[in-house]
C-alpha cells in the first residue's frame, strides 16, 4: 500500500510529533474503517453553503485530500454526487469542519470522509470559496500540502516541513512498543518497563 504516512496510526503520529498536531476529537470518520491519508488541498467555504466544494473537486490535484472549513455548520455539505465526482478526479478523501450526508453510500464507495457532524440538511450554492490558503479545521491550522491522516481515533495534520522527521520517530516508536509488548507477554509489567515504580 502506498501510504504517505507509512501506515502509522494517528495516535502514533501524534506522540511522535512532540507538538500539537491532533484535531479536535469532535472530527470523526463518517464510516467505520475509513482511513484518510494525503496532502491537503485547502478550501475556505461557508457554513450551510457548498458551492466551494463543487469548485474544489475540479481544482484540486489528483491524490489530494480536500480540507474544508465550513464553520462547523450542521448541513449536508457533501454527499454521494460530490463523492463520485471526487473519485473521478482521483481525489483521496475529505476532511471538513462541518456536516456531510449519504454515509451509507460513501461507505459503499469506499471514500474516506472525516467531519464534525452527519446532517441531512441541504445547502445553498452561493459562495465560490477561497482555495490554497491556511484553513482552521478542528481547531488546527492546516496549510496546503500538509499531510492529513485520519483513522478510527481521529485526525492529525503533519506540517509539510516536519513530515519526514515525524515519520522516522513514528517508526522508532512502533519498534519500541513492539519490544515492550513482547516483554509484557513474557510477564513483565508496565510499571517496571516504563520506570514508573516507586
Ligand atoms: O447538495 C450537494 O451538492 C451535496 C450532495 O447532496 C451530494 O453531493 O450528493
Ligand atoms: Mg445528494
Automatic annotation (TrEMBL):
Subunit structure: Homotrimer.
Organism taxonomic ancestry: Bacteria, Bacillati, Actinomycetota, Actinomycetes, Pseudonocardiales
Functional note: Catalyzes the aldol cleavage of 4-hydroxy-4-methyl-2-oxoglutarate (HMG) into 2 molecules of pyruvate. Also contains a secondary oxaloacetate (OAA) decarboxylase activity due to the common pyruvate enolate transition state formed following C-C bond cleavage in the retro-aldol and decarboxylation reactions.
Family of this protein: Belongs to the class II aldolase/RraA-like family.
Catalytic activity as recorded in UniProt: 4-hydroxy-4-methyl-2-oxoglutarate = 2 pyruvate; oxaloacetate + H(+) = pyruvate + CO2
Protein name from the UniProt record: Putative 4-hydroxy-4-methyl-2-oxoglutarate aldolase
InterPro entries named in the record: RraA/RraA-like (IPR005493), RraA/RraA-like_sf (IPR036704)
EC number of the protein: 4.1.1.112, 4.1.3.17
Cofactor(s) needed by this chain: a divalent metal cation
CDD domains on file: RraA_family
One Pfam family of this chain: RraA-like
Domain of life: Bacteria
Native source organism of the sequence: Lentzea indica
Amino acid at each position: 500500500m502506498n501510504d504517505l504516512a507509512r501506515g502509522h496510526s494517528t495516535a502514533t503520529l501524534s506522540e511522535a510529533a512532540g507538538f500539537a498536531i491532533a484535531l479536535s476529537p469532535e472530527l470523526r470518520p463518517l464510516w467505520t474503517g475509513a482511513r484518510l491519508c494525503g496532502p491537503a488541498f485547502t478550501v475556505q467555504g461557508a457554513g450551510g453553503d457548498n458551492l466551494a466544494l463543487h469548485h474544489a473537486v475540479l481544482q484540486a490535484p489528483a491524490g489530494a485530500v480536500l480540507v474544508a472549513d465550513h464553520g462547523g455548520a450542521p448541513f449536508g455539505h457533501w454527499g454521494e454526487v460530490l463523492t463520485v465526482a471526487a473519485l473521478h478526479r482521483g481525489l483521496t478523501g475529505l476532511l471538513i469542519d462541518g456536516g456531510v450526508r449519504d454515509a451509507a453510500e460513501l461507505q459503499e464507495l469506499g471514500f474516506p470522509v472525516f467531519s464534525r457532524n452527519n446532517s441531512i440538511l441541504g445547502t445553498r450554492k452561493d459562495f465560490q470559496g477561497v482555495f490554497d490558503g491556511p484553513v482552521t479545521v478542528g481547531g488546527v491550522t492546516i496549510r496546503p500540502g500538509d499531510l492529513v491522516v485520519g483513522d478510527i481515533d481521529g485526525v492529525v495534520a503533519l506540517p509539510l516541513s516536519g513530515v519526514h522527521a515525524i515519520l522516522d520517530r513514528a517508526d522508532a516508536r512502533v519498534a519500541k512498543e513492539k519490544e515492550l509488548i513482547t516483554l509484557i507477554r513474557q510477564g513483565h509489567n508496565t510499571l517496571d518497563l516504563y520506570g514508573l515504580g516507586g
